[in-house]
Specification:
alpha/beta, disordered N terminus, 8-stranded mixed β-barrel, 13 helices, TIM Barrel, 277 residues, single chain
Length: 277
């Protein structure tokens, strides 16, 4: 006779075994370190080139934060941005990113665009307009600055969000919809917001050019984006066939490892100087 199922179950453990850190301990340490890093200004920005698909020249860059940690090495944003969004540290971090990227870009040898990711919390805290103005205080022309917003932060956008984004747009600063195609992809969002750029997520680009559905959707999005006067940027192009397809359907720009990984500030500056010379 088979043993009763209950007998096969492992013994119940009420507490985590002592040799493992209790749940959340690592996250608490990370949070302490993060507070310290904010106070000490320990972050760095890398810049990933955005290229024109027609000329393959660098037309801008996205600022991407990294955290050089004495024990953990170079911590990528995916490992701490969510935590910073939960505990509110993203607001001072986001302010630092805007000021630093603005000042850096103002001194580049070629006046290409600079794109900065912002988080919903910066908008909700009511500081985004101020932070953008602080970034422009470095002398950066507003037309060179662009904020990257995600669909999830815009889908429930209330009147205050719309007013803040319109005020930022009125300064001349661009507004990009990041990772388009991953979230709620509401066409109403596109209509209601003063956007200038749509970045097609790499999950859409991955299926190109062979998957008929992805090809049809991408073609339609490029056409729709252009009809709305948006600049279309493809993220995460991995192959020459994808590059050729996106160029053929009129996608304007690309940002992916195929063209360049995110670069430390001095290497991005050198790339601009080399292209200019
Ligand atoms: P994102 O804004 O969509 O940025 C693009 C991410 O895709 C970057 O990762 C970049 O390194 C990566 N990437 C670029 N080309 C390719 C490619 O060809 N293949 C693949 N597999 N990946 C590619 P990263 O730097 O790890 O940033 C991840 C995310 O963290 C960003 O996604 C953005 O949402 C967030 N993030 C980065 N910096 C900031 C920041 O300063 N503030 C906020 N709020 N979020 C940030
Ligand atoms: Mg982005
Ligand atoms: Mg993106």
């Amino acid at each position: 006779m088979p043993a009763p199922i209950a007998a096969a179950q492992p013994p119940r453990i009420d507490r985590a075994p002592a040799q493992f850190p209790e749940p959340g301990a690592d996250e608490r340490r990370l949070e302490q370190d993060l507070r310290h890093a904010v106070a000490q200004g320990q972050f760095v920005l890398h810049y990933q080139p955005r290229v024109s698909l027609a000329s393959l020249r660098t037309v801008g860059a996205e600022a991407l934060i990294r955290w050089p940690h004495r024990k953990r090495g170079m911590v990528p944003p995916g490992a701490f941005i969510h935590l910073a969004e939960r505990n509110g540290l993203i607001t001072p971090i986001g302010g630092w990113v805007l000021r630093t990227a603005g000042a850096e870009a103002a001194s580049w040898p070629v006046p290409v665009g600079i794109s900065v990711n912002v988080s919903a919390r910066q908008l909700a805290d009511g500081v985004l307009l101020e932070q953008v103005e602080a970034a422009l205080a470095s002398g950066l022309a507003p037309e060179r600055l662009e904020l990257e917003l995600t669909e999830s932060m815009l889908v429930d956008a209330g009147i205050e969000t719309l007013m803040t984004l319109s005020a930022i747009r009125d300064l001349g600063v661009g507004l990009a919809l990041d990772d388009f195609g991953t979230g709620y992809a509401s066409l109403a969002t596109l209509k209601r917001l003063p956007l200038t750029v749509m970045k097609l997520d790499r999950s859409l680009v991955q299926g190109l050019p062979h998957y008929r559905e992805d090809a049809a959707i991408t073609r339609a999005l490029v056409e729709m984006g252009h009809a709305l006067s948006l600049t279309l940027v493809a993220e995460g192009i991995a192959t020459q066939a994808q590059r050729a397809f996106l160029t053929e359907i009129g996608c304007d720009e690309a940002q992916s490892f195929l063209f360049s990984r995110p670069l430390p500030p001095e290497r991005f500056r050198a790339r601009l100087a080399a292209e200019a010379g």
